[in-house]
Amino acid sequence: MTRPITAGVDGTEESLAALDWAAREAVRRRLPLRVVHAWRYAEALAAADRDTQHGWVTDGVDQAVRTVSERHPELEVGVDVVEGDAPHALATAAAGAEMLVLGSRGHGPVVGFLLGSVGQQVIAGADRPVVLVRAGDLAAAEAAGREVVVGQHGSPEDSAAALRFAFETAAARGASVRAVRAWTLPPVFAYSPGSLKLLDDAGGLEPYERQALAEALKPWRERFPDVPVAEHIEMGSAGQVLLSVSGRAQLMVVGRRAHRTAVGARIGSVAHGVLHHADCPVAVVPHD
């Protein structure tokens, strides 16, 4: 079954930027585009009944779709206007999509994302990649020379989903991948004797981390031999190291393992930090 690229729209400038980003990506990947809008009947608008309000919503979505179709006449576009809770509607739409693309406001004076409750709920609950796009994101930012940056950590299996997404995206764009692995000095006695032997065999901490990154990248280099890859090893926190190279990125890809707490789902500190401060679109990819 062919999965569409799905864009959530709500009429804001941010969501229209997300729709345009999703349309460009759908054309590159030769996939259909699905446009989803969730709405609720507003009883406060006593002069407008449910059908009238639905008509207003549909007209706005149709106008956005017409604009995209004029820019990309070859693109197959479907529309779903759903009455109900936005996080639930978007998470449901994401389940059947190649990815879900959402708009997000800039984070105050700092370039980045202001991640509201809807965005956080959708990212934490979605089983598919979710891409956040700011208003003002332009196709020019995808120009040659800008990389798809992806964070790698842990074992090859831990970051396989994020690496797959990054390589697929780079292949579709004719772009390169910069794979980033951050490392820090371990606390005293943190490693077992077996772990210390592995470090000794590798020649120390940094060579060990470099070897771990190379092993994680190996299957993806083989699967995508035409995608240039830069291996980036740097000491520091993962979020800080990723943000230090975001200026050269046309897309930042991070993995996500949602954490359930008493106050709701959390998406992890690395994904949260990158979403709030990266100056490019960010894809958050759930672990397989």
Automatic annotation (TrEMBL):
> What protein is this chain from?
Universal stress protein
- Alphabetized PANTHER family for the sequence: ADENINE NUCLEOTIDE ALPHA HYDROLASES-LIKE SUPERFAMILY PROTEIN
Q: Which residues form the UspA domain?
A: 1-134, 147-286
Similarity-based family: Belongs to the universal stress protein A family.
